[in-house]
Design goal:
With 172 residues, the protein is mainly alpha-helical. It has helices at residues 7-20, 24-42, 47-55, 59-65, 69-77, 92-99, 102-105, 117-120, 135-141, 145-153; strands at 106-110, 113-116. The chain has a two-stranded antiparallel sheet.
């Protein structure tokens, strides 16, 4: 009960969880789901669940698309896979890179060290789309110089499965 600020909600959750969940992993998953929903409500982001219900796809991709770095971080810390493939078979990092969502890739600067939400939590910097494009190439094609610089600083390498890089918006 000490995990929850609202003891009435915790009590309701515990009663529902004990009736509906028979295994320990189901209880843990339900508890995490409850905590995530509670967090979404506390930061005014419950609409992300509505969007997910309408469009489908992983909640992590919805949070990236809505540029909610805070939600992305909470989801990852509650067990979401930072490399989960979405409806278009892309990773969250690929989507953020292609759209130039630096706030999702980078949370904030503390001194000289940048905190990368997706990168620091295991996002695959070299994951390829079905067309062979990496996050670095997607950011470059879209002209997102800030994301290109962040990905390069994190160790992303220039390579591409196809023969030509001529249509990159940023000069190599």
């Amino acid at each position: 009960m000490s995990e929850f600020e609202d003891s009435a909600l915790a009590s309701k959750f515990n009663q529902r969880g004990s009736k509906e969940c028979s295994s320990g992993s189901s209880v843990t998953r339900s508890r995490k789901s409850f905590e995530v929903k509670k967090y979404l409500g506390s930061v005014g982001a419950l609409h992300l669940l509505t969007i997910q219900n309408q469009r489908g796809g992983p909640l992590l991709h919805i949070a990236v698309g809505e540029q909610r770095a805070d939600v992305v971080e909470v989801l990852i810390h509650n067990g979401e896979d930072p490399n989960i493939r979405g409806l278009k078979d892309t990773t969250p990092l690929q989507e953020a890179a292609a759209k130039g969502y630096t706030a999702v890739v980078k949370v904030s600067a503390i001194g000289y060290q940048l905190q990368y939400v997706l990168l620091e939590n295991g996002a695959d910097i070299s994951a390829e789309t079905t067309m062979g494009e990496t996050p670095l190439l997607l950011a470059s094609h879209a002209g997102n110089q800030d994301v290109v610089e962040m990905l390069r600083a994190a160790g992303a390498e220039w390579y591409y499965s196809y023969e030509s890089l001529t249509d990159c918006a940023i000069s190599l």
